[in-house]
Amino acid sequence: MHNCPFYKARQGLKEVDVVIANHDLVMADLTMGGGVILPKPEDVIYVFDEAHHLPDKAIGHFAYHTRIKGGVKTLESLGKAADRAAGVLRTTAAREQARIIKDAGNQAKEAMGSIRRAIEQEFPESKPSKFRREGDAQVWRFEKGITPEVFVERGKEIARHTSKVTQGASELHSLLKKALKDGEISNSAVDRIVQDMGNGVERITALAETWDMWSGQDPEGPPPMARWVTRDDGEIDVAVSAITAAGMLRSMLWEEAYGVILTSATITALNSFRRFQRSAGLRDDDGTVYLRLASPFNYSQVGVIEVPKMNTEPSDQEGHTAEIVDYIANCVSHNAGTLVLFASGWQMRKVAQALPEPLKSMCLTQNELPKHEIIEEHHRRIKTGKGSLIFGLASFSEGVDLPGELCTHVVIAKLPFAVPDSPVESARAEWLESKGMNPFMEITVPDASLKLIQAVGRLIRSEDDFGRVTILDKRVMTKRYGRQLLDALPPMQRIINQPAKTNVLSA
After folding, report:
1. Domain range list for the chain
2. DSSP state of 464
3. DSSP code for 419
């Protein structure tokens, strides 16, 4: 691999650039039309590692949101910058543009105040599946992505006025740069004003686009946008986002790029590329070639996956938590490296608090220390011959490298099913249901497969690694999807539905 962002390669008679760049850089370039930061897509072969993140990255780059108070402050700041610019330029054209900016800005602020009062008045106390609390914040997702009619005209009004502000600010910004270039004004007088005007144009453009998208209607056919409002500590945030990246990746990347190479250790789910195909907008007949390579690790000789006999399911929170405590207390080594992965912060804390000594003092729990400090302390303990347990959430399931004796046992408290409670996830599930599909089987189970593979992958990091993975969730055995999840894991030895045994390495 090359360290430079891209390098030249010759494909037949055409010279192309091979771009080895992160997802955010490529998405930012495509957002601006392509060929702005990187070479034009038609002259590029893109190489994406960790490609399973690409659809979510794309959705994030094409999402819009703005806060009402923040928008008002942005308009006020730009108005002041416009006055300063007009004062420096001293021309009729500059004064006219400053007037347009301030007048349109005042109208936009008035409309924002109106829609703020309307949102506060209409905000539901409770609407199942559309309303939820997120900490202290309250989120109201609009059904089928349709903004309530009571808000639409006000939102469009804000979009119209902020668009006028953008146009005026762009004109004034151009006048400033021209005067500077022609030597009519000095650098010292306008450097800060030019910068403030440029930043203001960018922010107001985003503001106008957000209100326009939030107040608009989606065309028939494609998946709808997700639209919602968040109320948090007296602030109102309006947001809109695509619920799938399939269309945008197809039109902006797959159909435009000279070629794309996607790599990832977890790009398949349930032994299939189907989930990634759907989320990334790839088709069976579009010329894409898929290749799944066998691992170089001899899993059957170095690892064991065990699913001990459990009395409770995770839905019995207290009973399941007690069984996890019992398993860790009796079956986890006191003198080795262990990683325990939780899907719930509540359960992680409960288990940590209930552990007997000396295991409690061996435990390094996420959020009690920064992640890097947990890993450093874990390294120190293992290197000095002591045992150590890391208790972590999803962020410890991916990108954490604990080779050799640093991790000989991975304990997975329960299957990593995500609850589709974000506005985008909820809207996607709603859309699938409207198409007669089952969101749990279409999204939740395949995504859990990816996360489970990542979690199990923390054990064997090199050809010298060994150990076992324990899954403390009986649904692997009792649910139809459980066998699918298990079959998608590396081919380690299986010990299924047997009483848990004390680790022979335990003190």
Report:
1. 6-62+245-280, 64-242, 299-496
2. T
3. P
Cβ atoms 399, 52 nearer than 8 A: no
Phi, psi of 216 (to 5 degrees): -85, 180
d(CA 297, CA 301): 9
Contact 169, 200 (CB under 8 A): yes
Largest CA distance in the chain: 87
299-496 homologous superfamily:
P-loop containing nucleotide triphosphate hydrolases (3.40.50.300)
Q: Indicate the pairing of strand 131-134 with strand 235-242.
A: unpaired
pLDDT tens readout for residues 129-168: 455 555 568 899 999 999 999 999 999 999 999 999 999 9
pLDDT: which is higher, 9 or 25: 25
How close are the terminal C-alpha atoms of the chain, in Å?
45
Phi, psi of 272 (to 5 degrees): -140, 150
The pair phi, psi for residue 123, each rounded to 5°, is: -60, 125
Task: Give 415-418's long-range contacts (Cβ < 8 A, gap of 24+).
Answer: 415/314, 415/343, 415/448, 415/452, 415/471, 415/473, 415/475, 415/476, 415/485, 416/341, 416/343, 416/448, 416/451, 416/452, 416/455, 417/343, 417/444, 417/445, 417/448, 418/444, 418/447, 418/448, 418/451
- Contacts of residue 416, defined as CB under 8 A and 6 or more positions apart, other chains included, come to 341, 343, 394, 397, 448, 451, 452, 455
Judge contact between 469 and 303, C-beta under 8 A: yes
Cβ–Cβ under 8 Å, residues 448 and 261? no
DSSP-derived letter for residue 42 is G
pTM: 0.84
